Amino acid sequence: MTTPVELSRPLTFRERHESKIRQWRLYAHMFGKSFSSMLGLGLVVLFLLLAALGPWLAPYPEDTVGAFNMANKLMGPSAGHWFGTDEMGSDILSRVIIGARTSLWVGLIITGVGAIIGVPLGIIAGYRGGWVRAVIMRITELFLAVPGLALALAIVAALGPGITNCVLALSLVWWPGYVRLVEAKTLSVKEELFVESARSIGAKTPWILWHHILPNCMSPIIVKMSMDMGMAILSAASLGFIGLGAQPPAPEWGAMISVARTYMPDWWWYSLFPGAAIFLTVLGFNLLGDGLRDILDPRSRDR
Question: Where does the ABC transmembrane type-1 domain lie (predicted)?
Answer without folding.
Answer: 100-289
